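Backbone description:
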Amino acid sequence: MYAVGTALATQYGTVVAPANTMGGTVIRGSTIETPNNVQVFPYIVIELPSGELPVGGGQRRATHEFPVYFLFSRASGDTPRNRKALLQWLGPLLDATFTATKLGLSSVVMKALPNSYEPVIYEYGDIGYHAWRFVVGVWTEDTVTLVP
């Protein structure tokens, strides 16, 4: 799953917002290896997934849900500015996996698409960040050998 998480971080790291977006138009960092702190914004943090692993007929067709956090800024009193910027980023972030639904891992990943999203204050290391939380569904398939 590390390769899938890394591929997600890479895909989200290439997102570009429309011109004149508050706070800049490029992602400054994107990782599945949660950093000790975040110094530059916007920043993408991919959290550990949850999922289901049904196995049958020698195939493992799994569904994984990766929480993806788009950190725009440290939480501040400038709520109108932060909300406007978050809305400017929403479309490009929702489209992030549409150009590469297999994340470059076509031998394992069947598709990766956002299932849901919500605005949040992401708490990390006693600091709150204005953020989007996306849940990206990743469907995988591989062959397994079941031994009695």
